[in-house]
Amino acid sequence: MESVTCVIDIGLDDFRAAAGRLAGRVRRTPLFDPAPLALGGAAALRFKLENLQVTGSFKARGAANTVASLTEAERARGLVTASGGNHGLGVAAAGASFGAPVTIYLPTSTPPAKVRKFARWGANVHVVGQVWDEANEAALAHAARDGLTYVHPFADPRVVAGQGTIALEMLGDDPDLDLLIVAIGGGGLISGIARAAALVKPGIKVIGVEPVGAATLHDSLKAGQLVTLDRIATRAGSLAPRRSEQLNLDIIRAHVDRIALVDDAAMERAASLAWTECGLALEIAAAAGLAALADGLVPEAQGARVGLIVCGAGTEGVA
Fold first, then answer.
1. What is the structure's pLDDT at 155?
2. For residue 228, what are the CA distances in angstroms to 1, 186, 235, 268?
3. DSSP per position, the chain
4. pLDDT at 4 over 60
5. Rounded Cα gap, residues 264 and 213, in angstroms
6. At residue 167, does pLDDT exceed 90?
7. Omega prior to 202 cis, within 30 of 0
8. pLDDT value at position 1?
9. What mean pLDDT value characterizes the chain?
């Protein structure tokens, strides 16, 4: 078993600085009360509506914070990244706001509707490989070949700090939240939220949610080290890297209470529930946390004040 010394040097000042950089570049999304909808025995339930974010997901935060932190020379060389869609859109939007050229690598699993969105931001798009990891190899090779500035979707302290601004806003709007439920892809979102929340409100609980068919960080925690999945078996493409990174594993190990697993059918039901009960149009990945809560997989929610991050827009749950 790998021996790891965990050194997490992302502090509260980093999250506050990120919030300053993001002012005017992303939206301060609302904390929505879905009552009378009641799930999981929660005493109160609040949805953080990142589906209303610029480009349609929370990824705009980490991307904008990273791009804003680059030097002019780094931006001028051009930006490149790999994405299941949402991070790429965030980088494309951030690059456009700074006048930086952007190249995005997407796997073939990216929904066509999401691929079409890139035209608005003027990004160059290449569709390579079946999963994110394969698209990422191509992006890294392009960065090395042409000297482009690579923007990682989850394993960068600047990305983590940007995503963590969500926790600052949630606890600013409702300081009494006891529990946060967060979907996990590569781990950038939950890393930022869990770290920031622990600094603002020590003792708050954080539950992560992954697809059964892409249990990357669940399995890494169980193994005590990073693992690479042999295969991906989920339609929730934005939650489906085969491997995370040490930064994210360290933060999750330190600040996340546990990770629940949901299947695609549960996410589809939850996305439909969000639409029929609240008028929220979500991609199924964004319904992962709601699925875990609705299916009783978060017993910690019983009697608690729960904050649930609704992380991305889509139409998969719209009847």
1. 95
2. 14, 12, 19, 26
3. -----------HHHHHHHHHHHBTTB----EE--TT---TT-SEEEEEEGGGSGGGBTHHHHHHHHHHHS-HHHHHT-EEEE-SSHHHHHHHHHHHHHT--EEEEE-TTS-HHHHHHGGGGT-EEEE-SSSHHHHHHHHHHHHHHHT-EE--SSSSHHHHHHHHHHHHHHHHH-TT--EEEEE-SSSHHHHHHHHHHHHHSTT-EEEEEEEGGG-HHHHHHHHTS----S----S-GGG--S---HHHHHHHHHH--EEEEE-HHHHHHHHHHHHHHH---B-GGGGHHHHHHHTT--GGGTTSEEEEEE-BB-STT--
4. no
5. 8
6. yes
7. no
8. 27
9. 95
Contact between residue 290 and residue 38 where contact means Cβ atoms under 8 Å apart: no
Q: Which two tokens stand for residue 86?
A: 């949402």
Residue 189 to residue 211: CA distance in whole angstroms:
15
| Nearest one of 281, 5, 14 to 157, comparing CA atoms | 14
Whether 3 shows a pLDDT value over 60: the answer reads no
Cross-strand pairs, 306: 45, 179
Amino acid at 189: L
- The encoded tokens of residue 260 equal 């629940």
Note the pLDDT tens digit of each residue in 219-257.
999 999 999 999 999 999 889 999 999 999 999 999 999
CB 114 within 8 A of CB 85: yes
Write down the residue that tokens 């060389």 correspond to. Answer: 77
Domains of the chain: 12-58+156-310 (3.40.50.1100), 59-150 (3.40.50.1100)
Structure confidence by residue, pLDDT tens digits, 254-292: 999 999 999 999 999 999 999 999 999 999 999 999 999
